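Running this now, will post back.
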Amino acid sequence: MTAAVALDSTLCRLLFSEALVSESAGILLRSRLQTVARRLGFPESRRQNMLLVASEMVTNLIKHAGAKGVVQIWQQPGNVLDLVSFDYGPGIHDPVSAQRDGFSTVGTLGKGLGSMQRLSDRFGIFSQPRTGSVHPWQGTLVWCRFEPEPLPPTLGQVGLFVRSLANDRHNGDHIYLELRPDRLRLFHLDGLGHGKDAAQATAHLDRYLAEAETLDGLVARVDRHLRVTTRGAVGIACELNARHQSLTMLGVGDMSAHLCQEGEVQHFSFAPGVLGREHKTPRPTEVAVGAGALLVSTSDGIRRGWDEKTFPGLCRQHPQLIAYVLGNAMARLTDDQSVCVLRMDDFSDRQGEGGFNLEVQRGCMIA
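Update: finished.
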């Protein structure tokens, strides 16, 4: 059997999210960051870099966005730590220039974004300046990633955002991924309601991903499994096949999927009903995809009203940055929220066979 890598969204955790209205308010952020980074085994020199980046984020949020926003600490698969600043400020008209030392709009030394980029293992910025156009969100998101130790460079083809209602410890939204050399399977579920019962309904279903030969079989097995539990769920099953350059998907219930390629965003909906209860028969949809194609799946905790016009240029960003933008900007705060973003690898140099280069970190399960 070909080796497979499995990833479970329980490895994605929001550890801190606070509005920081003054420099002194950053003390709690830095304290929490220091504690988490030490627990995950980051050496002292790396922890100091994180603290410097956190301080720059707080300063920028206060000076440039009027303290209208939050700074977050995320733990991602493989004990990776992400620092995210998300604000509702005036935005940056030229993010590329803003990353150069000496660039400033408020008379400072202008080293903030440049230093954050140098101190981080990965860095991303996405900004929507205030204009006359109507957008779901206007402001700036800055993302800085820290890895436990230097890792080989990859294309980083996955982004996860999983946040429970009111930051409860239990989350009914669950994302399973299975990666093989020529295909990538995604199973994205949302247990009915929220809290412990919803979380239990969608937990421990990863075995069906490996056992089922087809997506129809996968959904059918989970449907039968849920009929003996107290809760049903809605869900999407997808398979990206690099060899055939195709995307196949089917699902049941109020979930959504979005395919971004060639500057366009195509939206998909699924059979009405609930897995484990009554539902229409899900029918597979197959579409052609090319290198660089982006698949975004979301639960109903994420609003659907977005495309390339409302977020110009977003689909060209790193999948993790996209997940953070959509998760923060398009969240419904009355439900659990989850986003999964996948990009097909550039297979042009692989003799036409195709493939994936998922950013799989230590801590993921190998089957």
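The first helix runs from residue 26 to 39. More later if anyone needs it.
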